[in-house]
Structures are given as structure tokens and as C-alpha cells.
Amino acid sequence: MKIYTRTGDQGTTGVLGGRIDKDDIRVEAYGTIDELNAFIGEAMARMDQKSHADLIADLTEIQHELFDAGGDLAQVGKNRNYKVVAEMVSRLEEWIDKYDAECPPLKRFILPGGSPLAASLHICRVIARRAERLVVTLTRNQETNEEVRRYLNRLSDFFFIAARVANVRAQIPDVEYKRGGQVFN
């Protein structure tokens, strides 16, 4: 099987239900989710198998779910069979609470960084936010699975906490934003 098909040479791509322009907001949205998935793989490559086994397992599940999210967004027309569901959002909230319990209380905004792993997870956070913004635009203009938007919103929160946990486990403090006052109680 050849990896290239030449079907996209004219600037269109195939989706479930037809062909659309490669710069369509739908393609931008699921393409950004694909970019996020690649950066998750990069972050996982930085993880120690023992001290981050729980994060590796959770991130692996997230990578599969991001494929599901991309598939949901790549469906146009009728007879849609969506895979991203509300239970996935609830599970992300459980994971956020679990990892947040490892972190010291947050008093100020923090700057992205600390350990190399935390920096990678912050990159995942901002890509998740960009994907969410694109999905917001998509859902405003076209019909699609709105659970993907909720999932991405919660996922960016997950990456924020995962970055903090990475710093805690590396015994590197978060870098606080010092030009503002205490914002969290």
C-alpha cells in the first residue's frame, strides 16, 4: 500500500460524508487535535516509566480519545456516530482532582516552565486551548459533536495540573507570576 494517494493535491481532503477544503475550520480543528496528540507523545517520551507510570497510562488513554475526537469532527452530513461522550469529561475531572491533590496550594498565576517535562505539558495545554477555540468556531457555524468542545476545555485543565505534578515530582517549584497579587485562596 502506498502512503500517498494524490487525492488532496487540489487542496481538498476526504472526510466522512464527502470532501472539503483543507483550510476548512473543521480540518483546522481536527488537525490541531492531531498536533496536540503529537506533542503528548513528545511529553510522554520525557517521562520516567516508574515515577510517571500513572501519567503515562492516562495520557495514552487521552491519545486514543483524541483520535476519537478527530474522527467525530471529521464527520459531515447525517448518520453520525460520535465517540466522545460526557463520561470522558467526568473522568478527566476525576484525574484532575487526583493529581491536584499532589500539588501545593496555588496562590498566584504560574508561568509555563519549571522542569522540561512540565514545559512540554504546558505546550500541550496551550495547543488544547487553541483546538478548543477552533471547535468553538466550528460548532457555531457547522453541526458537530459538542462534547468535543467540553472535552478539550477540561483537557487543557488536565495539562495544567499534569505540568504542576511534573514539577512536584521533579522537586522543582512552579515559577510564580510575580507582577500580580495573590489570586487564589
TrEMBL record:
Q: Which GO terms describe its biological process?
A: cobalamin biosynthetic process
Stated EC number for the protein is 2.5.1.17
Catalyzed reactions per annotation: 2 cob(II)yrinate a,c diamide + reduced [electron-transfer flavoprotein] + 2 ATP = 2 adenosylcob(III)yrinate a,c-diamide + 2 triphosphate + oxidized [electron-transfer flavoprotein] + 3 H(+); 2 cob(II)alamin + reduced [electron-transfer flavoprotein] + 2 ATP = 2 adenosylcob(III)alamin + 2 triphosphate + oxidized [electron-transfer flavoprotein] + 3 H(+)
Sequence intervals crossing the membrane:
none
Q: Where is the signal peptide?
A: none
InterPro entries according to UniProt: CblAdoTrfase-like, CblAdoTrfase-like_sf, PduO-typ
Keywords of this protein's UniProt record, alphabetized? ATP-binding, Cobalamin biosynthesis, Nucleotide-binding, Transferase
Q: Using the record's annotation, list all stretches that form the Cobalamin adenosyltransferase-like domain.
A: 3-166
> Which Pfam family is one of this chain's hits?
Cob_adeno_trans
Q: Which NCBIfam families match?
A: PduO_Nterm
Family under the similarity heading = Belongs to the Cob(I)alamin adenosyltransferase family.
| Assembly information from the UniProt record | Homotrimer.
Official protein name in the record? Corrinoid adenosyltransferase
